[in-house]
Amino acid sequence: MQLILIQLNWDTVCLERDCYNIADINSVEGLCSSERAGHRLHLQRTEDMDHHLTSRWVIELTSEHPTAQLAAQELRRAIQRMGGPALNITGYADDRRLALRHGSDGDGFVRIADEHGLTLIGEGPRGLLYAVYHLLETLGWRWVGPGPADEYVPHPSTITFPTTTVAEQPAFARRGLVIGHDLFLTQGEAWIEWAARVRLNTIFIHTIADHGMPLGACRQRTWQSYRNRLWPLMHTRGLRLEIGGHHLTAAIPRRLFRQQPDLFRYDGRRRVANGNPCPTNSATQNLVYAWAKQWFRAEPAAAVYHLWPDDRLAGGWCACPQCAGLSPADQSLLLVNVMAKALAETNPHARLAYLAYHDTFAPPQQMTPAANVELLIAPRRRSYAVGIGDSKHPINGPLADAITALRTTFPAGAGVFEYYLDGILFKSTLPPLGEIIAADLRAYHKWRLDGVYVLLTGDRPWLAPGPNPYSFAALAWNPQHDPIVLRREYAAVRAPTTATLLDCAYAELTTAWQRTLNITPAEVQRQQLGLTRDPITQPPRDLLDGYDAPPPHCEQRLVALHDALDTLHAGETALAAARRSAHAEQAALAGDIAEWTASALVLRYFAARQEAAVVQARRAPPARQRQAIVTARATYAELLDWATRYVPHSARAGHRLLRAIFALHLDHLESRIAPPWRRLYLRWQRLGELVRLLAQLWWDWHTKP
Ligand SMILES: [Zn+2]
């Protein structure tokens, strides 16, 4: 038998000459040596192939690699679930076969059709697994989220395999799902299986030390209790593990402050035991080095470690004479390099991340990263109304400049940490962001980032995943996908008989949120963590809480929010029609409708809060101002009613705590116009509620595994 070699740029693959048209193979070669990312090629053979599946077909696999074995099992199971025969898995077949092969490493794959069947060749074992999932997608399978209602299984009368040849390479080498709350860690098995099926290749467990408040990260203890169950699932699929979070301050225990205050930062007046340590102090560096080494040894399986500084907007670094000349980014990178030395000695193949976030977003000027340090960009203070690459946008434009500058500073690699599944940033909802995700990932690809990660966090489990997880995964593989098509596919899986109506409702919700998310720099400046003694006059405020920005911003925001509410009417009509006509998919559709409703209620609350702020700014008559507060409190009550129906008891205290921030915003506005007795009452009432909720949460965190 004659053999030819095809150089596919990632590996050298042997193929039987009889099977192929040489010109076609040259096309594959041409594709792979040119710009590969996101491209695909379909080659049609001239003669007919009989690709109808019968019980004579077999799966051919010689590899004993566990990921390749899983690929064969997944293929076999899927064919059975489609109504096909249970195919034998054999080491050799000369006809009617689905041949599975792989090289040493990588995510790319080719699928070659010939008269004997199909040959799936992965760059590495994981690439082969992706080739199998891709083949199943071609046969009609979809996984639009991690649950059973998110899976579509086709049931054709006969299964016919494609007769096209396909070559695929991902646009981004690393495509990660960041699990950022215990709630999602408890669903970890489903999320990991889903991540592999949609060709993500990294699971990042975002942790917080056990003494911290795990509102936007997994407790280390929870991860440790799940690790033995979840790590084998990742390992079998060839998924990489990344781990960590804002842990750095744990390197310098607060109890050392009395004896060694110089370990801690100088705030311009004195040493203080908050924020980050003094990075130029050699004793600090020794402690950080030893602590990091322990950390790396405790989590030996990770490919990338994240030991980030404190989660603050600004002001958490040192101003002592030795540090004063170093920017926050330089101070941070100094300690990252100390830890990178410990990592190189402990695990020379692993990397350590430097986090560009808030005040470390500007590139470091004086420090250069160690060889095993890579960049993680977290552009949280941005607008999600337009793509990150929109150079004319007053918020995103400067961020884009900083990202391109950062990229050149970190030659070892760069990834971006995005927030499309962040229930904290988006107020316990998930705005559909398909078009923004597409625009972002095209920009990140243009800027030559290697990795894209999405943070999955929130204060409650989702009743439906919404279109974002599926859109993110598909676009991380190929940013040229059409986000509208992806949203449509989501709707078709969740509600097959009313897909058009559900898609229409999501389209309207997308527009409504787009208006809401189009924030201005004046509004962003209202952001504050609210870590003060008086949460009434200085409540915590995140990016979407710039309600009392000065005119004309507050007035413009009100107009935008009223436009958003107008947009929702068409979506409500579509959902009502879907509810009337749906039958089989009632449960899944009910989940989407409930999530849609929560999103709409949050937008109503925003509009009512804005109205209260605007009538104050206009100095409307006191009765009008009071009435606006009463109306806003009614929208807040609707949000609490929704939570009573849909938030499970185990998540209720955490959800109520974050929702209480909305009440604090209304207290803040009311306290400006209320008589002293009322202000006192508000303060007493709200503090009582916060204490009760925090006590409940501390009890849960410290008594439940
Ligand atoms: Zn210092």
TrEMBL record:
GO terms for molecular function: hydrolase activity. Keywords: Hydrolase. Pfam families: DUF4838. InterPro entries: DUF4838, Hex-like_dom2. Gene3D superfamilies: Chitobiase/beta-hexosaminidase domain 2-like. GO terms for biological process: carbohydrate metabolic process. The keyword Hydrolase applies. This is DUF4838 domain-containing protein.
